[in-house]
Write a structure and sequence with these properties.
Number of strands: 5
Shape: globular
Helix content: 40-55%
Order of helices and strands: EHEHHHEHEHHEH
Strand content: 5-15%
Low-confidence stretches: none
Distance between the termini: 10 Å
Number of helices: 8
Bound molecules: shikimate-3-phosphate
């Protein structure tokens, strides 16, 4: 089967849903962020601090090309920042956008200090990033799934029916 790519903002549930989907479909699963951390033996937050975002984005594009044989791939929220990534995903499978409300994102990330681009003290600029990315996710996606207020297994079922 071709790969299902889950895209969406930080905290939109890509990893949780990716794992549940892989169980339901009995398919192989990988998370690009986890793969990058394992491959480069460094936490993403430290990569951003020590090497800068551009180096991370290059690692991310390389990872995407290396992971084309998986059935389900959860991506980092910034995967749409490079057009070449969208091309790779389009050519190799289906892109599913998990659209969560910004209020849900704030709640899920309120105690998170692992994400270098998330700062709960700057909610206006977080909202601006969310809005900018939202347009990019919609443009890139083959399928958009609204996740707010839905149970994980219902979202999984929706993805299975639409892909
Ligand atoms: C990023 C999202 C993160 C991670 C990195 C950059 C982004 O992944 O790839 O911190 O630019 O939105 P999650 O979407 O899994 O949090």
């Amino acid at each position: 089967m071709s790969t299902i790519y889950l895209i969406g903002f930080m905290g939109s549930g890509k990893s949780t849903i990716g794992k549940a989907l892989s169980r339901a479909m009995n398919g192989s699963y990988v998370d690009t962020d986890a793969y990058i951390e394992e491959k480069h033996q460094q936490h993403i937050k430290d990569m951003f601090a020590e090497l800068g975002e551009d180096v991370f984005r290059t690692y991310e594009s390389e990872a995407l090309k290396e992971l084309t044989s998986f059935d389900i791939v959860s991506t980092g929220g910034g995967i749409v920042e490079r057009e070449e990534n969208i091309t790779v995903m389009r050519e190799n499978g289906k892109i599913v956008y998990l659209q969560a409300d910004f209020t849900d994102i704030i709640e899920r990330l309120q105690h998170d200090d692992t994400r270098p681009l998330w700062n709960p003290d700057e909610i206006d600029s977080m909202k601006a990033l969310f809005e900018r990315r939202q347009a990019m996710y919609k443009e890139a996606a083959d399928i958009t799934i609204h996740t707010s207020g839905k149970a994980i297994l219902d979202i999984v079922e929706e993805i299975r029916q639409l892909t």
